[in-house]
Design a protein that fits this description.
Number of helices: 6
Strand content: 35-45%
Radius of gyration: 39 Å
Oligomer: single chain
Helix content: under 10%
């Protein structure tokens, strides 16, 4: 019967794709009539009758080998290989050998296939005769069947999604693709004293005459290397102003025991403009001006948001401040392990976790993905904080940040970055070697070269001071002596975890006042909002509630204000209880810090100030703004209260008015006052003015003062 097996259907035809071919698919199917190289004992008198053949394919500095098929002259290999190949003048070198375990392999034949003939993207299946070592046909060495398809694969294109954000270009993407016709630098023979035939070329690049070079790995024994190595060079505004926008490329012959030999160089002027990539061949100038071959380079100027994420001069600008914000940039990864072919089967992303915060990049189908993702974490540098007490958990500053590279649900590797090394507020840049051991809690040290230690991730980090992230609950006018009772509660709501709602906001309530954060998705409940709530001696609790909509609570937690009246800043986690079942298990946690503050006692009024205030009132009547402008150190409220409650002979009160502190306005936070029940109106309030009425209900007292005096009198009656 006839049937279909995918194993023998090599690279079926697909819809043609636009673009130059960059992915070569090779199938080594079988051989026939190969040379016999081994003698069998059963036919020793007849000479060689069989072989143990294997086939090797070399293209673009990469070699692929089939399995050995024992005792046959007509092997069936059915091997498939993929390799990234770009540009013209490539050749497939095929070599067939007889495998000998106890001695060296025996040469059976070779051939070369010009790849330019297969650039149409179609599948080509042909028999190719084997030749001798010099490429001549000396006898019948048999044939090998090869299937070739050279196509364009969009996932192998470079610098496609790297231009992000708004603004001018600040990074030059460089890919040194390949070179040809390079100079031979290494001598032939056992001692290397013969004529130079090959080299071990490597390429290095720098922008604007920078001190340091970025270097590619060397490719051994070739004059036509295929590096396919990408570099990303920052472009600063200083470089543009002084005209340092020339890309220097040098090719050297790698020597292990001595200095590298110069092979050629080229300088490429760069136009700093965002746009599509360009790919061009450039002539190399060798030693003493000779022709050093050609090199292919792909360039693109892009906007990298990670490069403007850091502040190099932060330590000098804020010398006496401790860091409070951690900025992280995940640049990319190198040498990720993939069990697939040239076209990546992995779809890696990088997750950054700094408990309880988490960030994640987008997935990029590549073994060398470039993310250029910048993140910010609000992390104070204080070692310890005062806790709220009771069931509230204390706040601890994390000591390490975890970066894990993941693909389709599995972890490709992880690293731990220590925060202690970042307290100097310098930008740390480097490659961190990925490990696959989850229980390993050791801090990973960065390296400057991604090619040394296998799979790695490039991370930049800086722990700096940001004034916008400093809640600064310690007010300048707070009374540190403890002589006055606190009358203002400063609260900073930071974040929440473990909630079951799609979105939520957080509200702080005390003394009939409410402050709410904006509504956020439960996946990113990080408010980092600070506000102030007035309190009085009757206030007992601070209630922190989670709301599905403003005013609709689904969870809450309370803090006795007696725990805050020592005037110290407290910071910690609050366990949120369900509204429907008080006392049940926590449905989430809220992270906040708070401080109850009292204003500094105002300086006492002196006799000269009273005399000056009396004179100004006689001149300007009740124009308190004009009066306060003429009283140094006093505002309009101070002047008005001093006159109304002390100096005015018609309304002078025996008690001193309370000092009021204006509540600060915080962006993104709405502070609103709950409805309060007003005391019942006095029957005397509607009567005409009479001199024998008490001073607290006379009509020439302002409405705000009347309200305060009414409250005080009703409290005495109660």
């Amino acid at each position: 019967t006839l049937s279909y097996d995918e194993k023998y259907d090599y690279f079926p035809e697909e819809k043609p794709m636009n673009g130059e071919p960059n992915l070569l698919m090779i199938g080594v199917t079988r051989g026939r009539d190969l040379l016999p190289m081994d003698v069998q004992l059963s036919s020793a008198f007849r000479g060689s009758t069989t072989s143990d053949p294997k086939c090797s394919i070399t293209i673009a500095n990469k070699t692929f080998t089939t399995e050995m098929i024992a005792k046959t002259l007509n092997p069936q290999w059915h091997a498939r290989f993929e390799v990234q190949v770009e540009g013209p003048s490539h050749k497939i070198h095929l070599n067939v050998e007889d495998v000998d375990v106890l001695s060296g392999n025996d040469f059976m034949g070779r051939c070369e296939i010009n790849l330019d003939e297969y650039a149409d993207g179609k599948r080509h299946r042909h028999w190719h005769p084997l030749l001798d070592k010099k490429g001549r046909k000396d006898k019948n060495r048999g044939e090998v069947e090869i299937v070739v398809r050279w196509v364009h694969e969009p996932r192998l294109r470079r610098f496609v999604d790297d231009d992000k954000g708004e603004g001018p270009a600040n990074e030059l993407c460089v890919c040194v693709v390949q070179a040809m016709n390079l100079l031979a630098m290494d001598g032939s023979g056992m001692l290397g004293l013969g004529k130079a035939k090959l080299s071990d070329p490597l390429a290095k690049v720098r922008l604007g005459g920078a001190k340091d070079w970025s270097c590619s790995p060397h490719v051994p024994k070739t004059l036509k290397p295929f590096w396919n190595r990408e570099f990303r060079l920052p472009i600063s505004s200083d470089d543009i102003e002084r005209g340092a926008t020339t890309l220097d490329i040098e090719v050297e012959d790698y020597d292990k025991g001595s200095l590298n030999d110069f092979m050629g160089s080229v300088s490429i002027p760069i136009i700093i403009e965002r746009g599509p990539s360009s790919r061009t061949w450039h002539a190399l100038t060798g030693p003493k001006g000779v022709d050093g071959g050609r090199i292919e380079v792909q360039l693109r100027c892009v906007r990298n948001p990670a490069l403007v994420h850091f502040e190099e001069d932060n330590k000098n600008e804020y010398k006496k401040r401790k860091p409070n914000e951690l900025r992280v940039a995940v640049i990319g990864a190198q040498n990720l392990v993939d069990e697939g072919g040239v076209v990546p089967t992995i779809d890696p992303r990088c997750a950054v976790h700094l408990w309880p915060f988490s960030r994640s990049t987008k997935s990029r189908a590549s073994r060398q993905p470039t993310w250029n993702a910048a993140y910010t974490f609000r992390v104070p540098s204080a070692d310890t904080f005062d806790a709220f007490g009771g069931d509230c958990a204390a706040s601890e500053v994390p000591t390490a940040m975890e970066c894990s590279v993941r693909s389709k649900g599995r972890v490709l590797g992880r690293v731990l970055l220590g925060l202690k090394e970042l307290k100097d507020r310098k930008v740390r840049k480097g490659f961190y070697t990925l490990t696959d051991q989850e229980e390993d809690s050791s801090i990973t040290k960065p390296t400057n070269n991604s090619a040394k230690d296998g799979p790695c991730v490039e991370v930049w980090a800086q722990w700096l001071y940001n004034p916008d992230a400093d809640f600064d609950l310690e007010g300048e006018n707070d009374d540190a002596s403890g002589m006055q009772a606190p009358n203002l509660l400063r609260v900073a709501l930071l974040c929440a975890t473990g909630l079951e709602k799609d979105e939520a906001c957080c509200a702080a309530k005390a003394s009939g006042h409410v402050a709410r954060t904006p509504m956020l998705s439960s996946e990113a409940l990080e408010w980092h909002a600070a506000f102030a709530l007035p309190i009085d001696t009757s206030s007992q609790f601070l209630r922190v509630a989670l709301e599905s909509t403003p005013g609709d609570e689904f969870g809450y937690s309370t803090i006795p204000l007696t725990n805050l009246k020592d005037g110290k800043v407290k910071r910690g986690w609050l366990a949120v209880k369900r509204i429907a079942a008080p006392g049940a298990l926590s449905l989430g946690d809220v992270f906040l810090q708070a401080k109850a503050a009292a204003p500094r006692p105002a300086p006492a009024w002196s006799a000269p100030e009273d005399a000056e205030l009396t004179r100004l009132v006689q001149v300007h009547d009740s124009d308190w703004n004009t009066i306060a402008a003429a009283m140094p150190g006093r505002d309009n409220s101070d002047c008005r209260k001093r006159w109304v409650y002390t100096l005015d002979p018609t309304t002078a009160a025996p008690v001193e008015a309370p000092q009021e502190e204006e509540q600060p306005e915080v962006e993104g936070v709405v502070v609103e006052e709950e409805d309060e029940s007003e005391p019942p109106a006095s029957p005397d309030e509607t009567d005409p003015f009479t001199p024998d009425k008490p001073h607290w209900c006379r009509f020439n007292v302002e409405k705000r003062d009347v309200k305060w005096l009414l409250k005080k009198q009703w409290s005495k009656l109660a």
